[in-house]
Specification:
Elements lengths: L5 E2 L2 E3 L11 E8 L2 E8 L14 H23 L13 E7 L2 E7 L14 H20 L2 E2 L8 E4 L8 E4 L6 E2 L18 H8 L12 H16 L12 H6 L12 H10 L10 H7 L39 E4 L2 E4 L36 H10 L59 H17 L1
Antiparallel strand pairs: 1-2, 2-3, 3-4, 4-6, 5-6, 7-10, 8-9, 11-12
Length: about 450
Amino acid sequence: MKKGDVIGGYRITSEPTNANGGKCVWAFAEKDGGQYFVKRFLEPKRPRDDDTRDTPSLRIRRQLAREFEERHRTIMKRLRPDARGGGNLVLATDFFHEGSTYYKVTERIDTSSLEKPQSLEPRQKMVLLKTLGMSLKQLHDIGIVHGDLKPLNVLVQKRDGAAFHTAKLIDFDDSYVAGDPPGPEEIAGDSLYGAPEWRRYMRDDGSVGGEQLTCAVDVFALGLMTHLYLTGELPHHDKRYGSPADAVDAGEQLELDIRLSDTMLGLVRSMTGRAPAGRPRMATFLKTLSDPSVCALQHRRPGSTRPSTATRPKSGGAAGGRTPSPHTTKSSGATTSSDTTTSSGTTPSGTKASSGTTSSGATASSGTGPRTSRIKSTMRSAGRPGGSGGAPRVPRPATEPGRPPAATDDRPATPPTAPDSPPPARPASPPPSGDVPAPRASRVRINLGDRRRDRDRGSS
């Protein structure tokens, strides 16, 4: 095929090219004043009708050619251009062979496409995905699998005067009846968007039969494309695997963008599941897209959501920021660890501690200055009796011989010892009883307390 040739009544008007054509060469053509797109298949080759030989290789070639013709004619018969709702399907108008080569013809259309659908606002994205979903539903309702669903085969366009972008679905060359695909050696598609069962079928490992290749193959690809159209990227997967399908088939979960709404995260997760039967039908997909907010990206506050391994974005992504540690809290601009209280005496867990005392028993300053050790705080309070630091008095042992007990509601205070009476010698602290634990007191605290008591008695 070359420019100026007439093939099947179509005059070729452009230089043929293989750009994005796979196993085909294509060119523009005209016939009876109409403009067309002509595709020439590089394989299979059809044996000549006048070749009467009956060799094994010819029998195989004839069988492949019959299956190829039957598949394309079946798709054309089921997908008619005049079918209701077929306005966004670019369907073939002619299919024939000339010599040993097959050709397919469609009407020439504007093949321009929006490069960055993710730049659209949520309502535009919703309409775009719904038009694509309705086209696929039309296929699936008549038992047809597109078989090669990917961005290259979807034209995102906006007609003059139209309010929204819509999706036109093209290239049905690899389509087949659900459950009846071409053989593993003949089936085509794109491994980047292929489903796990399609990948296993291609490898012909015996784990998947043709009857298991259903419309769910398209649903898997649509799940990946939905993520792409909304965020600008495909879901990430473990790089040990060559494709998203291979990762899912190995039991790994795809990493979805956490900016997606919770509803969309659930939808895409179910669409890209390993089990074909667990993927939603197109009716469910369309019903989910009933509200534009579903297609809006959620600019989540860093730390408000801790994604699972399956949904964690790559480092430095748009949802960046670290989740605050649950062991820290903020008070008056200062961060304290879980073993301290805030300046108001409230512990991070929300319980109230004694004023100026940490939950571990250490004394804390009422200001926002640096933390001091237990010994330093005690020495500071001992050196400034009655000072403004607000430090508590040094705790004393539960029982001190020679010291009068304090007054209670039902017992008056015992008169103090006469000033000229020498203070009794301090005996060793008795062991604590089993019922009341003895308070912890450092040697420094006891000595400081004795000096202060002696000084108070001497002054009186």
